[in-house]
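New to this. Please check this protein:
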Amino acid sequence: MDNNTREQIDLIIQKTKELDAVYREAAHKSGVSDGEVAVWSVLLNGNAAYSQQDIAELLFLPKQTVNSLITRMTHKGYLTLEHTPGTRNRKIIQLTETGRHFGEKQVRWIFESEKKAMEDTNPSEIAACISMLNKYIERFKKEIEQKDSSEGDIVTK
C-alpha cells in the first residue's frame, strides 16, 4: 500500500471520529449520552413503530447496547415498551408525553443543526460523499469476508 492510500484511509477514519466527537459534544450540551442521541434521532425523526431490534439494526449497535439505552430512558420516564400482539417478545418503543417534551426541548436542536449543516452543503458534494462511503464500506466488507483465516494470524472464535 502506498503512503497516499494509507493517508486517505487514515483521514476518513479521523473525520469519522471527529464527527463522533461533535455528536458527543452536542449530547453533552443536551444532558444525554451520545448513544441516547442516536435513539432520540430514530424516535423523534422516524415515521414508524420501532422495536429494540429495529433500532439496533438501524444504528448498527449491539442489541445489548440498545437494550441498556432503552432501559435507562424508560427509567427516566421517557419511554414505554408495548408488547406486540402475535409475537413472542417483540415490544414497540413508545415515547411518553414526558419523553416527547424532553426530546423536543432538549434534543431536537441537534437534528435541526444537522439539517442546517446539510442544507448549507453542496448537494453534489453530499451525493459524492455518500456514494464514496457506500462503495468503500461494501468493498471493505467484501475484503473482510474474503479473508481466509489460514492466511495469517487471524484468531477465530
